[in-house]
Amino acid sequence: MAAPEPIPPELFLSGYPPEIVDIAERLRSVVRDAVPEAIERVRTGWRLIGYDVPVGRRARYFAFVAPEPKHVHLGFEYGAWMTDSDELLLGAHLNLKKVRFVTYEPGDPIQTDALVRYTREAADLAAQRPSGPITMRRPPARPRDS
After folding, report:
1. In the predicted model, is pLDDT for residue 131 greater than 60?
2. Is CATH 3.90.1150.200 the classification given to domain 9-128?
3. Where are the beta strands (DSSP E) in 13-111?
4. How would you list the strands of the sheet with 100-104, edge to edge?
5. pTM for this structure?
6. By three-state DSSP, how is residue 40 classified?
7. Any idea what the Cα angle at residue 89 is, between residues 83 and 91, rounded to 5°?
8. How many C-alpha atoms does 73 have within 13 Å on its Cβ side?
9. Distance CA 34, CA 112 (A)
10. pLDDT tens digit string along 57-86?
């Protein structure tokens, strides 16, 4: 059985309000500017546009643009390990183990320069990641007093 034809991102976005499409297109541009070699594809099951960074003969998922009816997320698969020097990333408050994201509503200013830096860092983290799950390093256990 042949794989289904990929859905163009523009077709995927066409079902959203124009102001949401505008934000999503601006965030897509951020990813393309930050990581020109990124592979962009619609992931219908997740209802988002996902990005993979080539690593040798493989590719690793590192970012997504996820439109919703009232806002758009730019997310990073390994965001929990990112620097977040501008304190933009959300997700820890939802107890997400590794994903972090930013959210934009119509009229919100988009911090393009910061997002380009964040997107590059996300791709670098994904490219350096060893195979298998990432585990958080736990501090050594403290000795108990007797």
Report:
1. no
2. yes
3. 39-43, 48-55, 58-67, 72-76, 100-104
4. 39-43, 48-55, 58-67, 72-76, 100-104
5. 0.84
6. strand
7. 115
8. 18
9. 10
10. 899 999 999 999 999 999 999 999 999 999
